[in-house]
Design goal:
- The protein is of the alpha/beta class.
- Helix content is about 40%, strand content about 20%.
- The protein is built from 4 helices and 4 strands; from the N terminus they run ββαααβαβ.
- A 4-stranded parallel beta sheet has the order 2-3-1-4, covered by helices on one side.
Length: about 120
């Protein structure tokens, strides 16, 4: 089974996927001037998000749920699972969450394609 994960910004339009996850509830690095020009691919952004207990707990729950979803889809014989991870601009929170999800699913032996649709726009 192929898993396709795409991070995106809600303000740039919706995306077609089997599952859409909303990261707008997480702490937003955009409002920290030293992090604004960075992206969720950068360690300081990831650390900023994960240092918040609520954000870290939310992400952990998301990882557990999506790992379970992938395992169940694989058992059912699904060929593809498309997961979209969104935040406001598609540059910080959604990218961080998508990377964490891709890492976790790869650790579990899944084939994952990861794409950041709006990382340069947000």
């Amino acid at each position: 089974m192929r898993i396709e994960i795409t991070s995106f910004g809600h303000k740039y339009g919706e995306i077609e996927a089997d599952i859409v996850l909303d990261m707008r509830c997480l702490e937003n690095p955009y409002w920290v001037l030293s992090l604004r020009e960075l992206s969720g691919l950068d360690a300081p952004v990831r650390e900023y998000i994960l240092q918040d207990k609520d954000s870290a707990a939310y992400l952990q729950t998301m990882l557990t749920l999506m790992t379970m979803q992938a395992e169940m889809a694989k058992k059912r014989g699904c060929e593809r699972l498309r997961i979209a991870v969104g935040c406001t601009g598609g540059r910080h929170r959604s990218v961080t969450a998508a990377v964490l999800l891709a890492e976790r699913l790869r650790e579990k032996g899944h084939t994952v394609n990861l794409h950041h649709r709006d990382i340069e726009r947000g």
